[in-house]
Amino acid sequence: MNMNAQRRRWIAMAAAGVMVAGTALGAQGTAATFKATASVKAPGKSASVPVTIRIDRFISEADRDKVVAAVKAQTPGEPQKTLAAMSDVGYIAVGEKRTPVKYAYARSTGDGRLITVVTAQPIYYIGGGEPNAKPKEGYDLALALLVLNGHDSGDGELAPAVKVKIDAGGAVVTDDYGREVVRLTKIAKVK
Length: 191
Fold this sequence. Notes:
Elements (H helix, E strand, L loop, with lengths): L2 H18 L11 E11 L2 E11 L5 H12 L5 H8 L4 E5 L2 E13 L2 E8 L21 E8 L4 E14 L5 E5 L5 E9 L1
Antiparallel strand pairs: 1-2, 1-9, 2-3, 3-4, 4-5, 5-6, 6-7, 7-8, 7-9
């Protein structure tokens, strides 16, 4: 496994782990808007687009527990159905495309925080071996991970089409549709 694939798997597992465990921030904070640049590099090509992540509110512990139960049930499509039934709590805008956020959860990381944002539908299918990659069964969510310092700035990653499942050891893991890591750089909270 190459270094990028290992890093992507680690970040994805860390993000999924936030869904299952972690120390939640008090009241999860208030509404926030973050701006960033999403960049992806593949052999012979690269692209960068602006990203806005708007969080109107963070989910409750009860809603978080519903999502965790849906993932643990290991029933195909259940996490997506559970998330789709939840109220929108914000959006992820990639370029001109806006996708509703159903899950926004933050946990403390010392002087900063780790925010996991999940949608109930994919944003884009990047890769798949063809220019206009098509949907594949099960890749029906998108996930963003924001690793922020105490000033609410930092970096992260975006998985624009992902599936969530439980591995043989009982841990929540994600499987990205694309092979290339989509990096979120220069994340900054908009005042």
